[in-house]
Design brief:
The protein has one domain. 78% of the residues lie in helices and 0% in strands. Helix 3 packs parallel to helix 7, helix 4 packs antiparallel against helix 5 and helix 5 runs antiparallel to helix 6. It contains seven helices and no strands. InterPro entries: DUF3429. It comes from Brevundimonas balnearis.
Length: 146
Amino acid sequence: MTEASTAIPRPALLLGWAGVIPFAAFALASALEVRLPGLRPEPVLIAYAAAILSFMGGAQWGLASAEAKVDGQRLAVSVIPALVAWAALLQPREVGLTLCLVAFLALLAYDLLTVRQGRSPGWYGALRLQLTGAVVGCLALALVFD
């Protein structure tokens, strides 16, 4: 793999980190017990995590559908994050946060596997490590202070 294939494109890096801002904001709000009128930060955090998990599964769907031969197993794996996210929305806060945290870690493992297999861009693994580390830290913070 060349350096160019592992260098994270600047737009992906900036947009990816911008996507972490709501995680950080609502995890911090949870830790500091900030309450908006009629709103607790944890359900908002879970809802955002569910949206991003669905998006990340969709990213794998897109990568899978771009291959010359469609891999049904890879397509099936790509829908699991959305299903777990939906289940997380239906759970009590602690369970929902935990489901999201575990799902992000599991999806990271799968994403890294696809990078090692050459089925995802080389830079994708490095980006996912950074972003998932931040997201998992935010979810863990909210769990500790829930």
